[in-house]
Amino acid sequence: SYRTATQRTATRERAKAGTVDVVVGTHALLSEGTAFAKLGLVVVDEEHRFGVRHKEQLKRLRMEVDVIAMSATPIPRTLYLALVGARDLSVIETAPRERLPIRTLVRSYDENLVRDAIRAELARGGQVFYLHNRIETIEATAARIRQLVPKARISVGHGQMGSGELEAVMADFVAGNHDVLVCTTIIETGLDIPNCNTLILEGADRLGLAQLYQIRGRVGRFNRQAYAYLFLHRHGQMAERARQRLSAVRQHNQLGAGFRIAMRDLELRGAGNLLGSEQSGHIAGVGFELYCQLLRQSISRLKGGATTGIRAEIHLDCIQHADTPLGITAESTDTPTGPILTATLPVTWIPETRLRIEAFRRIALAPDNLAVKELRADLRDRFGRIPAEADALLKLAELRCLAELHRVVRVETDGNILRCVRVKPDGVEEPIMQFGRFPRLTAKEPLRKLTEVRGFLSRLPPLGTT
Hints:
This protein has 3 domains: 5-70, no CATH class; 103-255, P-loop containing nucleotide triphosphate hydrolases (Rossmann fold, 3-Layer(aba) Sandwich); 312-458, Aspartate Aminotransferase, domain 1 (Alpha-Beta Complex), CATH 3.90.1150. Strand 11 (333-335) and strand 12 form a beta hairpin. The chain has 15 helices and 15 strands. It has helices at residues 5-17, 52-60, 76-83, 111-123, 138-148, 163-174, 209-216, 240-251, 258-269, 283-286, 288-302, 353-364, 369-383, 388-405, 446-458, and strands spanning 41-44, 66-69, 103-108, 127-131, 154-157, 180-183, 196-201, 227-232, 313-315, 319-320, 333-335, 338-342, 408-414, 417-423, 429-431. The strands form 4 sheets. The chain has a 6-stranded parallel sheet, with helices on both faces. A 4-stranded mixed sheet has the order 9-13-14-15, covered by helices on one side. It is α/β, with parallel strands linked by helices.
């Protein structure tokens, strides 16, 4: 609830003096003038609503502070920190007793369906959230709903209302004095109204994946079947990324699906800059394997550990690899220079997002060919026969490990030409030549070409010999 300036000042003084054990607050705890005498634990609720700078401010309050971050849908950056072992992760998957999964419908806007959904909810004595995320037209939307369902008692709530006015609107809705609350995304967190079990959301394709999941979670908080109607924007063509988000929300409608939603969000947006402020992005730009290697080296360097001196870059024109999105169904193509195979872990082979990303991570961080061999055997045992796309990804990992073993920093193919660059102990790079020219490959098919390149690298003599 609201606190006066005097009350806030008194709380800060008690926290500074160490006469209070627990301080509960908002971002105001991060403002200048707030100090703690013996801060030992920071609990961040709704972690996805906090920025990186906010969390780092809390950690700087005391260098050895313990942090627990809680969220139904962790941001990609936080989730990936847990996946790579930089943070511990616990998942609560058991739903409260008698809870039912929310039935989710995604379709184009339909006033008849809106009217029928509201009437059906009111007929069983329930209430409705109607989310319209434009304050300029929210009153007009409320008037349209009154015309569709004249008997419904409708109220409006949004963030630009005065705190007292908004509080009165919400209190009346919780008390059951209104049937339909036409609102913006202010309902995303902090509301628990068991009698409200129908959500109607306009412009669902304009919201993020985690946001969609959080908003859908405002209904279905009792033992009554809840419904979520996600309507698309009436004008304009829906982007492919928006289509993927809505498909994920519709697919993951089981209880406790927040972790799976967060994993899908990581796939779609990337993990962000784990050592900077961006909380999503980058994976698609550099490729998952290179991303994992850079992350591993950065974390090791910050911890004062040793980092590998060689990182091999593999660019084969017969393999589509660096730009492959995580888990997107792979397709091989033919080009004038020969067939191209996509190196990935197909969704059809490893359907579970968490397991697929973990497999990607293990492949990317494999230190040597023995580790890749063990991983290959493990994947075959768990998921069955290895498809060509996954075989190509594993062979690329073997190629990388072999190249790094022989201090080869770059392996490229251009048709049948193989270009490799080796780095000497003094740091000087030199191309690997045969009879005064780059080696030539004879294989045409991608997997066989991979095998031929691997054979060439394995026969390389040690540096300093001929």
